[in-house]
Design a protein that fits this description.
heterodimer; A: about 110 residues; mainly beta; 7-stranded mixed beta sheet; 4-stranded antiparallel beta sheet; B: about 120 residues; 12 strands; about 0% helix
Chain lengths: ~110, ~120
């Protein structure tokens, strides 16, 4: 059982480039989340989804977009990469109310 | 809006010693409280959670936490630590109910380093 899989694990982008961070899960969880973790800071919520076709903004959505066409996949898109988006990105899923979050192993992104 | 403050950014401790990692939160409504652990190069894992009921919550790996509503605290404790407990620990809160599940506000993290 793979759980939550994130690809790629590492990526270096130039300013202005675009990319998609992939997140896929095989647990049939409805709730999915994207967090970013900056050094010395706690995780901050970027976007979340409560089911296929439904997404909403979190605390720090600017510069990002998401889609949720299937239960399994929740990609995060950066259209015009900026140095401020250098961070570690975590995807997470939740089975339902009062349950725990399952985190992927993260994508380390550097924008230079 | 809710916020979380972890009072210590780093806590060094010797093996088999007790440890307490401190967490305070602020919220105008009731919240759920969590402690997550992050081992190097891994995602976060849930240690324990407080939803309601007994204020003393026991989690995995011998950790426990006590919810203190009057002091708005949720400190994490372990009576005897091991080298393998070296990791970063995050306190987090979520609002009670609705689609707030999984929408966590995290503290800044506390790096626990256990020395032999």
């Amino acid at each position: 059982n793979a759980g939550v899989t994130q690809t790629p694990k590492f990526r270096i982008l130039k300013i202005g480039q675009s990319m998609t961070l992939q997140c896929t899960q095989d647990m049939n969880h409805n709730y999915m989340y994207w967090y970013r973790q900056d050094p010395g800071m706690g995780l901050k919520l970027i976007y979340y989804s409560v089911g296929a076709g439904i997404t909403d903004k979190g605390e720090v959505p600017n510069g990002y977009n998401v889609s949720r066409s299937t239960t399994e996949d929740f990609p995060l898109r950066l259209e015009l990469a900026a140095p401020s988006q250098t961070s570690v990105y975590f995807c997470a899923t939740l089975q339902g109310p009062n349950e725990k979050l399952f985190f992927g192993s993260g994508t380390q992104l550097s924008v230079l | 809006a809710q916020s979380v403050t972890q009072l210590d950014s780093q806590v060094p401790v010797f093996e088999e010693a007790p440890v307490e990692l401190r967490c305070n939160y602020s919220s105008s409504v009731s919240v759920y409280l969590f402690w997550y652990v992050q081992y190097p190069n891994q995602g976060l894992q849930l240690l324990l959670k407080y939803l309601s009921g007994s204020t003393l919550v026991k989690g995995i790996n011998g950790f426990e936490a006590e919810f203190n509503k009057s002091q708005t605290s949720f400190h994490l404790r372990k009576p005897s630590v091991h080298i393998s407990d070296t990791a970063e620990y995050f306190c987090a809160v979520s609002l009670d109910g609705g689609t707030s599940y999984g929408k966590l506000t995290f503290g800044q993290g506390t790096i626990l380093t256990v020395h032999p």
